[in-house]
Specification:
Protein name: Possible ABC transporter permease protein
Organism: uncultured marine bacterium EB0_39H12
Keywords: Membrane, Transmembrane, Transmembrane helix
Strand content: under 5%
């Protein structure tokens, strides 16, 4: 079974290179070009939290950088690198939503489901291969792009610093930890598990509804409206909003961080121990059962 599972995961990678390999890489290259242009003085980046510009390094700013504690310096560098990586994560996030909605709908639309049913592969194995692809493989495909972006950013700023006599070349690198890459991958795996109910709901709509987009949206809107009218509550809406966002910023997460940051491994453990996480896992198990059952009994190949 493991051999079959690995083969099906390789198939998913081959079929979705554009969304999960090429698109993030292109976004990373564009961001690298922007970062280099910033430190060449050709442009700048303004965000609500950060200002990436060569105009900010006056004498007072340089003195503050030299006097900054190692902890403060590390926090600022890590936060800046996290913010730079957000466009890549958003690109992959939208790709995941599209993939989840279309993966089972497409096999009904082109009737390839008939072919897959002729193979000695169970519906459960097929569904599990897609879950492993979402939860485990895609974060691993994203990580090299984040590493490339962070290395280019660190190298660019270091060259700018030393060439303009602001701080030594090693100023950034002494506060930059390769261990952050492991923290990022664990955080991405946790994010995939956190958002799994959303992906599975989209998959379920693709296995059943003739119009998967409408089938995914209308029942949720109806639940939100009915809950508000009958129970005067908005738990369904909050559940959806939290699962679409970062798990470390969810209302149910015990620690509320003010700054953008790479979460600690202990934060991942803390998330796994929350009631909200296990509610999501139970919902995911129910949705998986629904997908397997619906796909195994599906004789309607009409998708619009």
């Amino acid at each position: 079974m493991m051999t079959v599972l690995f083969t099906m995961i390789r198939k998913e990678i081959q079929e979705h290179k554009l969304a999960f390999i090429y698109a993030p890489f292109i976004v990373a290259l564009v961001l690298c070009a922007v970062i280099i242009s910033v430190y060449l003085g050709l442009t700048d980046i303004q965000t609500t939290n950060f200002s990436f510009s060569t105009d900010v390094y006056d004498e007072k700013y340089k003195e503050g950088m030299l006097l900054a504690s190692p902890e403060a310096k590390t926090a600022v560098i890590r936060a800046g690198l996290v913010v730079l990586g957000l466009p890549i994560l958003l690109t992959v996030g939208f790709g995941l939503l599209a993939y989840s909605l279309s993966t089972f709908a497409d096999e009904r639309k082109d009737r390839s489901l008939i072919f897959w049913r002729s193979l000695p592969v169970s519906d459960l194995t097929t569904v599990m291969s897609k879950l492993v692809f979402i939860v485990v493989v895609i974060p691993l495909l994203v990580l090299p792009n984040l590493i490339l972006l962070q290395l280019v950013a660190s190298l660019s700023v270091s060259i700018y610093f030393v060439s303009n006599d602001i701080v030594p070349f090693g100023y950034v690198w002494t506060s930059y930890f390769i261990s952050d890459w492991f923290r990022i991958i664990f955080s991405l795996w946790a994010q995939a598990l956190w958002s799994l109910p959303i992906f599975l709901w989209l998959m379920l709509s693709g296995t059943y509804f003739k119009k998967p987009v409408i089938g995914a949206v209308v029942p949720l809107v109806a639940l939100v409206v009915l809950e508000g009218i009958i129970f005067k509550a908005n738990n369904v809406q909050e559940f959806i909003e939290n699962r679409l966002g970062f798990w470390s910023r969810a209302d149910s997460f015990p620690i509320q961080y003010e700054e953008a940051r790479v979460v600690d491994i202990t934060d991942v453990y803390l998330m796994i121990t929350t009631q909200a996480f296990w509610i999501g896992m139970i919902a995911s198990a129910v949705l998986v059962a629904g997908i397997v059952f619906t796909r195994s009994t599906n004789n309607d190949f009409t998708v619009e």
